[in-house]
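Good morning,

Attaching, inline, the backbone tokens for the sequence recovery test we're adding to the shared suite. The designed sequence is right after.
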């Protein structure tokens, strides 16, 4: 509880802080990174051919591997066009620097002044190569240089060079001899069961180091008090306090806004608020020790794109039935989306009632011109002509099996337009399942999440031969937890659907499309494993399609599924269009 003088001081400090924020936000020339990030990402990937990611920088930024760090906003110049051009210049500059491999190569801590000095000293070499590769950028650089605000230059030495050339950063590689995690609960981290009440966006952070907490030191921790006039948050300097999960984030907003999230601790405790940031995790983890005591698992290979070979029996899949039910979610979904359901029902009815033309039949409604031509040729060749000269129209048979695969990792616990991604996934699968049930189409609904290769959980929400009425509440009850090892989940899905006798098989995945796991299943490695898993499915005549309710998915899905095998929903309202597109792709075959 605040003392009177502390309360007054805090209010005054917040007033000036908010006024400064407001003046920045109202600057019409300001360009925010989050607004131009999609365009910059596409440009970066087109220039390099690599899966470049762009993150907000703590200050001027730089590059690490395939990750570029840029300022959260640019308001240096008098108009938005120049500020946007500055972002473009930084993108080309960093890509050129990356091609020359000019960066820190050691893992030792480096002073910021030294990192900036390295960047200044290498600038002439990078600019020379930059202008050689992209001559038009020399004029842009001159234009930005001349327009750079003089007051900024006079206020801080080397400020202009720092903004143009950034700083050198560390490319830290994984240590193969690093120790495994200790004193961390073996229980897969579960999503919160109570509603998230508070979400704050954190300051940019370029690197996060995971701190392993010794449970004994946490239990022995002696409470200390720091008396200060204004709330603050200190950096991690060893020691650990208990994690109670209380929602006090909003009341401490002033303090946490000054917090730098360079050290984090992984815990399984429930939370009621989120302090959110994008970061590159610098964990020294060779592999987690998470190994389930359950002996009922299936082994699957995983593709190693660097060595171009499979890691034999590398991943363990633990199949199980979801036993959690949500009784009211299904009826609520149907009630809220009646219009959507009816629209989709009409479209599926149209497809269901289509007729397929059967050529070269012994009887039918019309002549087959190709067959008649062959008959004419046979007669003139003194051959006995075929009697199969008719065309017959038959109603398409429902020779189809569909497996709907839900990504229930913790990323699905995020929100789009105020709605939880996982809830939208469940709504889509329930609406889709209702239609497939009505039209007596063979279908199944499964979900997956993971925590390292040693524990890939695969939950059956509704099996192919199970009753829809009995299992739909189990679809409603699925919860978010763990990580996203997509390749393994696709391989097990292929095994399941391959047992069906249908000629036309489809796996439809609902996911954010970003492969990741606790043991470094990410980036090129994860993407290439998913691509290989999709190739395996296609070789077995199993079609695939992806639906995503997440804006970031556009950076990953095209690389894995191809240009015509996915749909990104920018908002939940686009479910009708997405499912309609999917219905058009699914063809019933004899």
């Amino acid at each position: 509880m605040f003392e009177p003088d502390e309360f007054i001081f805090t209010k005054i400090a917040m007033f000036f802080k908010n006024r400064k924020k407001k003046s920045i936000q109202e600057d019409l020339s300001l360009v925010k990174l989050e607004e131009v990030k999609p365009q910059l990402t596409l440009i970066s990937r087109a220039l390099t051919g690599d899966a470049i990611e762009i993150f907000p920088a703590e200050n001027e930024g730089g590059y690490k591997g395939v990750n570029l760090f840029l300022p959260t906003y640019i308001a240096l110049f008098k108009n938005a066009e120049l500020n946007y051009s500055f972002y473009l210049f930084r993108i080309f500059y960093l890509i050129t620097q990356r091609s020359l491999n000019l960066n820190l190569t050691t893992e030792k801590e480096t002073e910021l002044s030294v990192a900036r000095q390295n960047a200044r000293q290498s600038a002439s070499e990078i600019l020379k190569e930059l202008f050689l590769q992209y001559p038009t950028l020399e004029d842009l650089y001159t234009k930005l240089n001349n327009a750079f605000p003089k007051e900024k230059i006079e206020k801080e030495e080397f400020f202009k060079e720092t903004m143009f050339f950034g700083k050198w950063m560390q490319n830290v590689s994984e240590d193969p001899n690093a120790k495994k995690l200790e004193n961390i609960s073996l229980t897969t981290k579960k999503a919160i069961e109570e509603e998230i009440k508070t979400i704050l966006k954190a300051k940019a952070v370029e690197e996060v180091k995971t701190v392993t907490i010794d449970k004994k030191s946490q239990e022995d921790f002696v409470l200390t008090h720091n008396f200060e006039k204004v709330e603050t948050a200190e950096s991690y300097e060893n020691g650990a306090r208990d994690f109670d999960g209380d929602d006090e984030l909003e009341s401490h907003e002033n303090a946490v806004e000054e917090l730098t999230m360079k050290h984090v601790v992984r815990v399984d405790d429930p939370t009621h608020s989120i302090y959110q940031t994008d970061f590159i995790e610098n964990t020294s983890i060779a592999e987690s020790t998470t190994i389930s005591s359950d002996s009922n698992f299936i082994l699957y290979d995983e593709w190693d794109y660097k060595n171009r070979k499979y890691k034999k029996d590398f991943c363990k899949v633990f199949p199980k039935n979801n036993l959690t039910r949500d009784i009211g979610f299904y009826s609520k979904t149907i009630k809220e989306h009646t219009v959507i359901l009816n629209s989709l029902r009409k479209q599926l009815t149209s497809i269901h009632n289509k007729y397929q033309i059967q050529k070269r039949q012994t009887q039918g409604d019309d002549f087959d011109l190709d067959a008649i031509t062959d008959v004419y040729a046979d007669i003139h060749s003194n051959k006995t002509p075929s009697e199969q000269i008719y065309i017959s129209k038959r109603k398409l048979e429902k020779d189809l099996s569909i497996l709907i695969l839900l990504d229930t990792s913790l990323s699905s616990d995020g929100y789009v337009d105020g709605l939880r991604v996982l809830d939208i996934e469940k709504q889509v699968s329930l609406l889709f399942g209702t239609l497939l049930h009505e039209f007596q189409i063979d279908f199944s609904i499964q979900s997956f999440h993971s925590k390292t290769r040693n524990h890939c959980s695969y939950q059956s929400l509704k099996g192919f031969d199970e009753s829809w009425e009995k299992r739909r509440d189990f679809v409603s009850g699925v919860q978010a937890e763990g990580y996203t090892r997509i390749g393994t989940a696709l391989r097990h899905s292929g095994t399941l659907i391959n047992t069906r006798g249908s000629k036309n098989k489809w796996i439809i995945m609902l996911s954010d499309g970003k492969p990741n796991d606790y043991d470094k299943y990410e980036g090129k490695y994860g993407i290439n494993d998913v691509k290989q898993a999709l190739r395996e499915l296609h070789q077995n005549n199993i079609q695939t399609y992806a639906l995503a309710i997440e804006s970031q998915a556009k950076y990953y899905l095209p690389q894995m599924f191809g240009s015509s095998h996915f749909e990104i929903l920018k908002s939940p309202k686009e479910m009708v269009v997405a499912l309609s597109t999917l219905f058009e792709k699914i063809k019933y075959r004899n």
